[in-house]
Write a structure and sequence with these properties.
It is a single chain. The chain is built from nine helices and 21 strands. A hairpin with a 2-residue loop joins strand 1 and strand 2. The protein is α+β, with helices and mostly antiparallel strands. The protein folds into two domains: about 5-235, Rossmann fold (3-Layer(aba) Sandwich), CATH 3.40.50; about 240-355, OB fold (Dihydrolipoamide Acetyltransferase, E2P) (Beta Barrel), CATH 2.40.50.
Length: about 350
């Protein structure tokens, strides 16, 4: 297995700079996710690691070998990587066994070694019983596991995954997340995973690199980024959130558009943005930090998904399911914030959250 070292890498297509200064180390055996909206530069970075694109500047190392940089450029087949794309890209006329065996066959590996390696990897991805089937006889999830097995059969030191689950239905996506993570843990392989799906990133990653407009916004574990977002874009992209403007004075935040305030013990002053996670609000009829009017509620079995009007803002609240029968739209309700995420208000929030594609 191998680490990946990326030093001062940029990428431009003509005058269009799609990836600005990228400077990171992915550790041996780590599951790294490049997360961000469409067009942010994440797939471009993956393609440069794979060798399908050349950096405009900077250097990329896999292990202790420079694969891109200066006058050095190794093609993909020389980089000892496995790659799985968004499309399954399995050959329809070949059996599962033949599809998986193909990378070894073109390397002229002996037949008995091919058989052993293919059987090994099919067992890992739980497809041993389907070895003689053709792709049309498989489900979408099974076809994606064939593509994964083919990427792993040559024992690469690095596995690159480009939106591999986006063509699957929601239930299959969820199960495949855990299967891929289980395989990675079992093999100890370094994985670089590209997605725009924050749930995938949260569920699978050791660390997330969140990118927007070609720039890294924050790097950290899922818990670090979710609980301590570096800016409003990060808070908004990773999880559900609403923003309230306010002003700090005398240990309280006065909420814009209302005559209400909430307690504050932090060190910020002046104008601020209060980021509110809906699952971290307690909803009550009996009093709390802020009063509002219940606009709507949706009973979903395990939760009551509510919208509460506070001043001119609508705030989402994920409440306990039993609250559904206790209140109705139009009722005055009270919100208590169990945790606060506060940002300096140094500009227009709509501009900060705008996704450029």
């Amino acid at each position: 297995m191998a680490s990946v070292t990326i030093k001062h890498v940029t990428k431009a297509f003509g005058d269009n700079v799609v990836l600005k200064e990228f400077d990171q180390v992915f550790n041996d055996g780590e599951f790294i996710t490049l997360l961000g909206p469409s067009g942010c530069g994440k797939t471009t970075m993956l393609r440069m690691i794979a060798g399908f694109e050349k950096p405009t500047s900077g250097e990329i190392m896999i292990g202790d070998k420079v694969v891109s940089g200066g006058k050095t450029f190794l093609p993909p087949e020389k980089r000892d990587i496995g790659m799985v794309f968004q499309s399954y890209a399995v050959w329809p006329h070949m059996t599962v066994f033949e599809n998986v065996a193909y990378p070894l066959k073109i390397k002229h590996v002996k037949k008995d070694e091919i058989k052993a390696e293919v059987n090994r990897v099919l067992e890992i991805v739980h497809l041993s019983q389907y070895a003689q089937r053709i792709p049309s006889q498989l489900s979408g999830g099974q076809q994606q596991r064939v593509a994964l097995a083919r990427a792993l059969v040559a024992r690469p030191q690095l596995l690159l995954l480009d939106e591999p689950l986006s063509n699957l239905d929601a239930k299959l996506r969820e199960s495949m997340r855990f299967e891929i993570k289980e395989i990675q843990n079992r093999l100890g392989i370094t994985v670089v995973y590209v997605t725009h799906d924050q749930t995938e990133a949260m569920a699978m990653s050791d660390r997330i690199i969140l990118i927007n407009r070609g720039e890294i916004q924050q790097v950290g574990t899922p818990a670090e980024i979710y609980n301590n977002p570096a800016n409003q874009f990060v808070a908004d992209f990773l999880g559900k959130v609403d923003f309230l403007k306010g002003e700090v004075a005398n240990g309280r935040i006065s909420i814009a558009g209302t005559d209400q305030s909430i307690p504050y013990t932090g060190d910020k002053t002046g104008n601020v943005e209060l980021a509110i996670r809906p699952e971290r609000i307690t909803l009550s009829l009996d009093g709390g930090d802020l009063a509002g009017v219940l606009e709507s509620q949706y009973y979903l079995g395990d939760i009551n998904d509510c919208r509460v009007k506070v001043g001119e803002k609508s705030v989402r609240v994920i409440a306990a399911p039993e609250t559904y029968s206790r209140m109705k739209p139009g009722d005055t309700v009270y919100l208590t914030f169990r945790e606060q995420i506060i940002f300096d208000d140094d500009g227009d929030i709509d501009e900060k959250l705008k996704i450029m594609t």
